[in-house]
């Protein structure tokens, strides 16, 4: 490894350590980070620690929590604890893939609009305005209904409706960066647009992008749960948390535990991403502090 590479990796490590130190000063954000890390670990090891399979049946039906079945048994004899554990993989995957769609498309559109401006900016932003004029959840429901009810179509629907929000965040950051002196200096020495965008602009808009991506992960998991609850997302027997809530709605009075545990998982996950996102905003964007 060269001295330059070692110094670069050392600077990266120091920045990460300083970022963690600042995050540790915000207990709510640190709680969010630890819970998310815990959830990721649980999702990874879920197939090995879940006592039962997705559609493996037990001897009981609609039995409450017990030592043998901590979250109870559902209406057809499946262990709720195992299904919630295995559902963590699906809910996290839905959030990651849907945000990935929004992130890629939003970054491309936002940078092009913010960098070139003019008619390109006007056309892109008017299209984004039209999409954002439709309520977020309603548009996701509409797209999912057109594509057909399935987990994959739910991911696509959530990804599409968040593109305008990513594009606006990236466009604003790009327009603020493109006027800075080092960008003008890069133009003066003959750097191409691609080099300016990739080397000068993109590294300097990563901060707001990280913040918004973190917040969007929680919102996307919640949106996926809403679609599944409405019957337009994950379909039985897939144990996505929203699908578990959809199956449990008929037993709210007789077996409330069926909805309590997946509902708490959705709540805690979305809350953790929001707390972490707020903490990252304080660190990466000090101007946002009040």
Characterize the structure shown.
With 290 residues, the chain is mainly α. It has eleven helices and no strands.
- Note the total helix count: 11
Pairing-aware structural class of the strands and helices?
A: mainly alpha
- Mean pLDDT across all residues, rounded? 86
> How many angstroms separate the termini?
44 Å
Would you count the extended β strands for me? Answer: 0
Gross morphology: elongated
Which residue ranges are poorly predicted, with pLDDT under 50 across at least 5 consecutive positions? none
What helical percentage do the residues reach? Answer: over 70%
Major sheet details:
none
SSE string, helices as H and strands as E: HHHHHHHHHHH
Radius of gyration: 22 Å
- SS strand fraction: under 5%
Features of the shown structure:
290 residues, mainly alpha, 11 helices
Indicate the topology.
Layout: H1 3-24, H2 27-49, H3 80-116, H4 118-133, H5 136-147, H6 151-178, H7 181-188, H8 193-201, H9 206-229, H10 241-248, H11 257-284
Helix pairs in contact: 2-3, 2-11, 3-4, 3-6, 3-9, 3-11, 4-6, 5-6, 6-9, 7-8, 9-10, 9-11, 10-11
